[in-house]
Specification:
Elements (H helix, E strand, L loop, with lengths): L2 H22 L4 H17 L7 H17 L3 H9 L1 H24 L5 H8 L4 H9 L5 H29 L3
Helix pairs in contact: 1-2, 3-7, 5-6, 6-7, 6-8, 7-8
Length: 169
C-alpha cells in the first residue's frame, strides 16, 4: 500500500475509533478511541508506516489554532486569580518530571529529549507533536502520556470520592 493508501487507512480507522470513543462519552474517550484503533491496525498489519513530515506540520498548525482559539478574556481574568497556585504546581510537577527524566537518562533507559518530554506534564497531543521536532522518540513519548491519561481517567473518580471524604468543606 502506498503513502496515500496508508494515510487513508489510518484516517478512516482513526475516525472510526474516535466515533466509538465519542459514543462512550467519558473525558478523553475520542482521542483514546482513535489512538487504540490505529494502534490495533498497525499491530495487526505489522505496519512500520508513519505520516509524512508535511502531515506532522499540518497537525501542529491545527493544534496551535485549537489552543489559540481556547483563549478568552474570561480565561485571562480567571488565570490572574489563580496565578500563584498555577505557578507553584507547575514548578513542582515539572521538577518531579525532570528528576524522573534524569534517572531514566542516567540508567541509560532513554535519551535526554525522549526522557524529558515523556516525563513532562502537559497535553498529550502537544508533547507528542513537540517530540517530532526535538529528536525525541514520539512513540515512547506517546506511550508515556497515553498511559498517564488512561491512568488519570481510571483513578480520578476514586480520588474525587476519597478527597470528598477526607476534606470536608
Amino acid at each position: 500500500m502506498g503513502r496515500l493508501g496508508n494515510l487513508a487507512l489510518y484516517l478512516g480507522v482513526g475516525l472510526l475509533g474516535g466515533a466509538v470513543g465519542l459514543q462512550l462519552k467519558f473525558p478523553g474517550s475520542v482521542i483514546i478511541g482513535s489512538t487504540l484503533a490505529v494502534l490495533m491496525v498497525k499491530i495487526l498489519l505489522k505496519s512500520p508506516w508513519s505520516p509524512h513530515q508535511h502531515i506532522n506540520v499540518g497537525i501542529q498548525i491545527m493544534l496551535g489554532i485549537f489552543i489559540g482559539t481556547r483563549y478568552s478574556p474570561e480565561l485571562g481574568r480567571m488565570l490572574l486569580k489563580v496565578i500563584f497556585p498555577v505557578i507553584f504546581s507547575t514548578f513542582v510537577v515539572v521538577a518531579a518530571g525532570l528528576i524522573v527524566a534524569i534517572i531514566l537518562v542516567k540508567l541509560h533507559i532513554l535519551d535526554i529529549p525522549t526522557a524529558y518530554l515523556s516525563t513532562s506534564p502537559g497535553a498529550f497531543s502537544a508533547l507528542v507533536t513537540l517530540s517530532l521536532d526535538s529528536n525525541a522518540d514520539p512513540s515512547i513519548v506517546a506511550a508515556f502520556h497515553f498511559f498517564r491519561v488512561v491512568f488519570i481517567f481510571i483513578t480520578a473518580p476514586i480520588i474525587f470520592n476519597v478527597m470528598q471524604l477526607v476534606i470536608k468543606e
